[in-house]
Amino acid sequence: MTSDDFVPAPLRRLWGMSESSRLGRPPSLDVNVVVAAAVKIADRDGLDGVTLPKVATSLGFTSMSLYRHVGSKDELLTLMADAALGPPPNIDAPEWRGGLRRWAFAHRAVLQRRPWLTRVPVAGPPSGPHQIAWMEAALAIMSDTLLDWAHKIGAMSLISGYVVQSVRQHSELADGRAEGQGQADAERDYGRALARLVNPDRFPETARLFASTLFEAPPSDTPDEAIADADFSLGLELILDGVAVRVARSDP
Amino acid sequence: MTSDDFVPAPLRRLWGMSESSRLGRPPSLDVNVVVAAAVKIADRDGLDGVTLPKVATSLGFTSMSLYRHVGSKDELLTLMADAALGPPPNIDAPEWRGGLRRWAFAHRAVLQRRPWLTRVPVAGPPSGPHQIAWMEAALAIMSDTLLDWAHKIGAMSLISGYVVQSVRQHSELADGRAEGQGQADAERDYGRALARLVNPDRFPETARLFASTLFEAPPSDTPDEAIADADFSLGLELILDGVAVRVARSDP
DNA sequence: AGAGAAAGTATCAGTCGTACACAAATGCTG
DNA sequence: CAGCATTTGTGTACGACTGATACTTTCTCT
């Protein structure tokens, strides 16, 4: 039966199953070329810079020609996301905790290089080959544990969601920041501006927070990157502590 | 000096500091009315349904009139986000863990009622009065612990990020789902479609996952909501376990 | 009363996504 | 080798959106 191996068109394009109908006019354009061009534009101009006219003219075609290869702009975004994610690194760690940590940092590195990836609307569950490969890598890291599938998936998507959230937040704040201002400076300005609005009677804890040294005194020679790494690690290790509790619980 | 209590216009609008210049033609429109209308449209048509023409005509004005009260569409979104978030519930829990759990569920309930909130691009650090109030509530819950500020903020934003991510994911999947299909059915279909693409040689763990009972056999009389709640709790308790480790560590 | 200031309006340009009908380029069939 | 079905890329068009600029309207204060 053909209905058994029916795969919807978007999935076929994601997995590179070319039609090669060998009939009619041969295509001078294919999905991968279109996606590569779109990714290049996103790298340069951000996700909002990706428009069908721009992608098409960057290839010397008209915008409508793209519709022969991608079903819609949303589908193009999905294809871009999987292509830009790329394959996961090889991680063969002796124990799960170090492995997941490396997985998370690798994931973060990819997103930091292409912050627009964190803004692609997810149109469905992970279904591209690269997304699946990253998932495989995480599952392999946890294969030694006795966690059940629900916990493995839960831990993985928790970490992955944290990575996305964290990178997006930093990149959006960086976008909204005046040029030439470092992260430390921006945080201090933010604290000062809000400190006037936060009434200590209504918001006692928050007022104490703003009065604390958290925003005022970062050792001035610390690079922004180190601060960001520390913030990121704080949350990540918190999650890993939580996973450790479950791992220990399932292996008495 | 006036420069000391200078507050930028977007912040002034967020905090409801009206100008009341008492000169010239009196306004028949104000920020709150505009924001309320925009929120109503978002509730009905989603975030993409919010356009300046639609908001304006729903009030009987022209689109350009909105620019007298809102700096840009992005600013309108920020204002909508804070208005729609609303004030946090009163949570006076005897211990932090139950308190944070209730905080997370309350936050989730708000976002579930207005899924478009999870898609508003965050333009900066939390700065609206309601956002600050939610932050205050979380800090108050943790005030009994000996966590330092960095850990409190880290735990709070981790939980909040998890809530957002989780609700957004579910609502986006629900949007992409064919009508009349429940969550359990959709997950089963997803598993079947991908199972054919996932080569067990390249993706052994993932193949085992798809072959597992995770997607195939949810007890058929379980309502979708219960499944979603269980998924949500799984991740949340994982995070809380992680926080508990830190709380214990800081109080020997 | 009238000057000055602010609110709301009319008009407009520049984009974007995409539906639809068409032209061009090829392999297959006779 | 002719012509036909088939597939690819194009031209044109429409509706919708953001936001600029310059205008009219409607107030208060002098």
Structure description:
The structure is a homodimer of 252-residue chains. Chain A is an all-alpha fold and 252 residues long. Helix content of chain A is 59%, strand content 0%. The first copy, chain A, has ten helices and no strands. The radius of gyration of chain A is 23 Å and the shape is flat. The termini of chain A are far apart. The mean pLDDT of chain A is 90. Chain A binds a DNA duplex (30 and 30 nucleotides) through residues 21-29, 51-53, 61-65, 67-68, 72-73.
What keywords describe this structure?
homodimer; 252 residues; mainly alpha; 10 helices; 0% strand; DNA-binding
Number of helices of chain A: 10
Whole-number mean pLDDT of chain A: 90
Largest sheet of chain A, described in full?
none
Rg from Cα of chain A:
23 Å
Write the layout of secondary structure elements.
The structure is a homodimer of 252-residue chains.
Chain A (H helix, E strand, L loop, with lengths): L8 H6 L16 H15 L6 H8 L13 H13 L10 H18 L15 H13 L7 H28 L6 H13 L8 H8 L12 H27 L2
Helix pairs in contact in A: 2-3, 2-4, 5-7, 5-10, 7-10
The structure holds a DNA duplex (30 and 30 nucleotides).
